[in-house]
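Archive transcription. Copying these from loose printouts into the bound notebook so they stop getting lost. Printout 1 of 2:
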Amino acid sequence: MWAPESVRKRFKDLVKNGLKGSGDYGVVAVGLYGGQGPNRSDANHLPHVVGRATWPFAFENGQIVEVGAQYYWGRFVAEPDEVDLGGGLVTPDQPSNGATDQRGGLSFVLYPQPIGLDVEWNVGEGPELAPDGDRIEARFLHGGYVQLSYRQPTSIGEFFPFTRWNYYAGGRKFATNAPQSTVNEIDLGFEYSPWKEIEVVLSYTHSFERTNTRSAPYDQTKNADRIGAQVQWNY
């Protein structure tokens, strides 16, 4: 990872000033990593390759806009199991070294001073169970999110109301058999931070469509609602 000193300070200030910066991961980054996911051993001796470039532009009025692009490539070995999608019980086959797993994405962040906007979208291909259930192969995927937020400091802490649209269509590679998954949801909520160490979030989510990827036949849940709460302690 590399970034000039002036930009490293800018990344640091984004976090210090509570603007939801992610930290200093450089303006250019390249790397190799085990692409099989957390708590899973390597399955094909082929690391994933990742590259990223980003730049936080600072304007005279103090506003900061960050744009970036990222890409990774590798091969992913899914976890197959017996499945019946209507044609009888089968165990899906897959290439011995896994299916192609690659994505390219673009991102845009307008840091909340006081209005914030985050947009990220990616396209690629990854492991996905074929419609007949007899194989796991590389298939097209795409998805991302758009989030609008507002930062309001007060004498009793900071408030961050937000709304976010999430969308994804493609294989869920970390699930057994990597079934096709569709997620189309909108979130409404707010975060309250009485001190910089504590963040409390309440949110409401409406799912227009979400695939149950836990078990076949991987039905779609439509027009569902949920409420979430989270307390985070930063140290």
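Printout 2 of 2:
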Amino acid sequence: MSLESDRTIRRYQSSTGVTVYKLPVEAFPSHFTNCYLVLDDCVTLIDAASGWADANEHLRARFDELQASFGEKIRLRDIKRLLITHGHIDHFGGVNFLLKESQATLGIHELDVSVLQNFKERLILSTKNLHLYLDRTGFSAERVKSLLEMNKWSKDWFQATPVNLTLREGPLDGSSFYVHHVPGHCPGEVCLQLHDLLFTGDHVLHRTTPNQSPEFITRYTGLGHYLDSLKKIGAVAGVRVGLGGHERDIADVPARAEAIRQFHEERLARALEICRAPKSLADVSRELFGKQSGYHVLLAILETGAHVEYLYERGHLVVANMDKVEQEYNPVLLYQAR
């Protein structure tokens, strides 16, 4: 089953009898985010989709379908706790809508609290870092400008909101959840364990290998953090099924985590081979991913940067044009294998 076809509400039960529903919501056109309704002592919704265009009404309609198809009379107003797996807009953008509907307690990991509480500040600072990074890649000034505009798309309409529940590693007070902090794809990414169910957010997905970006732009991202987090989550005991933030269920989380790790090892080897001669990040990206267009150009250059950064930090690459780097402010960097 493809990402596009997995749009069906699904029902689960934990080993202790807690009922969970997967509610796929169209966060952006043809891009579905899985929100999860957990009917424990405290009615909990995991993730809020994007809040963009019709996403909020699509989420509301999913609750109507719950009553029609499953006989569940839960409404948005009954949500008491809203947990966000990580600070990406397709997972948190709908929080203001849901808080108006339900007055729920809002929780997110401490490293992503500022994404919600100080949204504009966080966006401005990360955009500045992204600008510095893109200027080093070898892209033209026109291409850099267009990528910066793409990066802001769908984000600068979000209104900051207070967080009143800070998630940290360990048991979540007053709940049956255990919080696993898994930085990499996002600084505050968490996997939430409910007995034998593991809500994996974007950390581990059924089919897609989650996009990576360099820690130069945002602390606690970067491939090194992500690979460490993959190892950590692959070792969690007692998980029967992984419930991802997108796509289908994950039948074997450790096996999927290992497959993702191997994928990145192969990409690292390929990037190192490309850099046998001095190459800019733009050069490496073109050889890794071929010709891309639109937003995929940005995704490719970020993924490239994460892998090149990982290799550079571990001494496998050097900067081949240090004379220019020493003389100029933020020039294009050329990387070469040692």
